[in-house]
Amino acid sequence: MQGLIDLVEKYFSISVIKEVLPYLLKGALFTVVFSAASEIIGIVIGLATSVVRVTRIKVLNQLAIVYVDLFRGTPLLMQIIFVYYALPYIGINLPATVAGIAALSINSGAYVTEIFRAGIESIDRGQMEAARSLGMSYIKAMRYIIIPQTIKRVLPPLTNEFVALIKDSSLLSVIAISELLRTAKEMMTWKLNPSSLTAAAILYLVITLPLTRYVSYMEEKLKRSGV
Amino acid sequence: MIEIVNLHKKFGTLEVLCGIDLKVNKGEVMVIIGPSGSGKSTLLRCVNLLEKPTSGQIFFAGEDITARKVNKNLVRQRLGMVFQSFNLFPHMTALGNVVIAPVQVLKMKKDEAEKKGIELLKKVGLTDKINVYPSQLSGGQKQRVAIARALAMNPEVMLFDEVTSALDPELVKEVLDVMKDLAKSGMTMLVVTHEMGFAREVGSHLIFMDEGLILEEGRAVDIFDNPRHVRTKAFLNAVL
Ligand SMILES: Nc1ncnc2c1ncn2[C@@H]1O[C@H](COP(=O)(O)OP(=O)(O)OP(=O)(O)O)[C@@H](O)[C@H]1O
Ligand SMILES: [Mg+2]
Q: How remote is the CA of residue B36 from the centroid of ligand 2, in Å?
């Protein structure tokens, strides 16, 4: 019984949460901004790389494979540390915010590449042939025929990837970016009470739940439309 | 209009076209018949440069389109192709399907392309389906949109690859009727088909292909009335 009371006091203290909430909301805003910026850049990188992958442009394709393997196969934490702490030795000094977004974007780009590649390859071959038979160049066929059809199919996996990115952005705390988790940890030391962590967890959920719900809804819809 | 000279096509070790020579003049309707796997589709796809011939030449309006320096996109703009599986763009309406290439490839103005597109859809009998998406069209309607889409580029030659094979029997006629009108209007056509009635009535010329070779060639009616090759006889007996 005493254990339960202690637990509530330590992790669910309403008074503490009330006090730290403004700071946490600011941290949450950082988390959203960093994740969204990285996701958008990641999509640009991933879209370009996936087109390189499906066209099998010789050297570029090899590079794209190495890129995807490298960034999907090593911990994001390491990538963040390398970009922020190692690059200065070769003269690349990035502010923490830029280094953070760069690391997240490049990492997310690797996942997005594979999402788009699967999406593009799932489009019936006849679509490309029909487009080319009308005299469209490969680029135009991609732009007007293939990619627009791909978007609908990649939206659910892309959103899943975004959710993962939002959670992963908490790793930016190692390079002193005041995103949600780091803010919560600071509040914990300040208040000598970890309720701020609980509040932060709830804020993460508030951000991610609509997204995960949206994915379920879209997947259901796609299944019904038989795409 | 089209002249094919000693055309060979191999997929790996499988030789699908084993030396095709064929001439199609302007305004002719060349019907291609033959058993499954004889290379009919491959032949059409070579003409449209969707397949790269292993050797041989294809001349289109006097130009060797198998030459390396040829701009394939420019060639394909002048050759319309209709596929067995329609291949309509599902994210665009019927009209959207018809105008996309004129607008993006020929740089035609959008309203001009739409005006022409509506006219073409009217011509294939789809006035009331202009703003409908492919998923809401029947197979016959889809195929007529596909024909209108190809015609929108003002092609000099139309290629048809078994365009009625995926259709329910009651929908075949509406598509064949459109093709008949097209033939009457003087369009040069290469038509792979299993519709022997159509082949006989509309085809000006006919070739019978088997195992990558043209076994018989001549006026369509002559071949139907008087096939010379034993394989042609056997094939016609089986399908008629
Ligand atoms: N891309 C390809 N790769 C390998 N083999 C192929 C390819 N395309 C066609 N073939 C083979 O080439 C042969 C001829 O095919 P093609 O599609 O030209 O025949 P067809 O006369 O059109 O037959 P059908 O009446 O069934 O459509 C077949 O044996 C087929 O399996
Ligand atoms: Mg075929």
A: 7
CATH 1.10.3720.10 assigned to domain A2-225? The reply is yes
Nearest CB among A133, A136, A152 relative to B50 is that of A133
SS (H, E, C) B161-229: ECCCCCCCHHHHHHHHHHHHHHHHCCCEEEEECCCHHHHHHHCCEEEEEECCEEEEEEEHHHHHHCCCC
Note whether B105 contacts A144, CB cutoff 8 Å.
no
Q: Looking at the CA of B40, which ligand is closest?
A: 1
CA-based nearest residue to A187, from A21, A15, A9, A6: A21
- Does residue B16 line the site of ligand 1, with CB under 6 A? yes
Q: Where are the domains of chain A?
A: 2-225
| Cβ-Cβ contacts under 8 Å, A135 against chain B | 73-74, 76-78, 101, 105, 153
Mean pLDDT by 10 residues, chain A (227 residues): 86 90 94 96 95 88 95 96 92 92 96 95 94 95 93 91 95 91 92 92 96 89 68
Task: Give per-residue pLDDT as tens, B107-154.
Answer: 999 999 999 999 999 999 999 999 999 999 999 999 999 999 999 999
Closest residue by CA, ligand 1 atom 2: B11
pTM reported for the whole predicted model: 0.84
- ipTM more than 0.90? yes
